[in-house]
Amino acid sequence: SEVCGLRWSPDDCALASGGNDNQLLVWDVAASASPMLRFADHTAAVKAVAWSPHQHGLLASGGGTADRCIRFWNTVSGSALHAVDTGSQVCNLSWSKNVNELVSTHGYSQNQIVVWRYPTMQKLATLTGHSYRVLYLASSPDGETIVTGAGDETLRFWNVFPGSKSSGGGAARGMSSLLRTTIR
Questions:
Q1: Please, which residues bridge with residue 136 across strands?
Q2: What are the beta bridge partners of residue 37?
Q3: I want to staple 81 with a disulfide (CB 3.0 to 4.6 A). Which of 33, 49, 72, 103 is the partner?
């Protein structure tokens, strides 16, 4: 099956891979050439994969258009925790390194970015501005800004977690698109 999502665990001991076969695999890179865990609850390709930097073994994955869910897994016990239906294709996931919040980017049908508080999955912010699916997501080294790239050939910079390291604030504070850059 084609691999379409990869992410190392924060301790570099495990690798999570999502595939077009709707499966999420977790590999113990030191011990075996076979996956140590296999989760098959998604109903579409698993492109979005993210490990929590706040809780050892907590893994999030996002499914494609036919699935639309962000699912959470305990890789220590090998169990499914819970899922939230986002209403659209999940393209990327990224945990804030500073606060226990998760960013998801979406394609069909909403083409937006959502910031969630974990574990309640309360939607803290919905960021719009891309006209096509949001294919790429990167966080700044300080964890305060994210950059998104979409099929509309733009990059957008979002100040999602300003001052979150020192104040304990998170996404509920000042959302703004800092810059729109056309790629072509």
A1: 149
A2: 26
A3: 72
| pLDDT computed for residue 172 by the predictor | 42
What is the distance between the alpha carbons of residues 91 and 136, in angstroms, rounded to a whole number?
8
Establish if 35 belongs to a structural domain: yes
Whether residue 119 is preceded by a cis peptide bond, meaning omega within 30 degrees of 0, is yes
pLDDT digits (tens, 9 = 90+) for 125-182: 999 999 999 999 999 999 999 999 999 999 999 999 987 654 444 444 444 444 555 5
Read off the pTM.
0.89
**Contact of 137 with 146, CB cutoff 8 Å:** yes
Q: Are 63 and 108 in contact (CB under 8 A)?
A: no
Bridge partners for 17 per DSSP: 6, 25
**Is residue 143 included in any domain, yes or no?**
no
Please state, as a whole number, how many other Cβ atoms lie within 10 Å of the Cβ of residue 78. 13
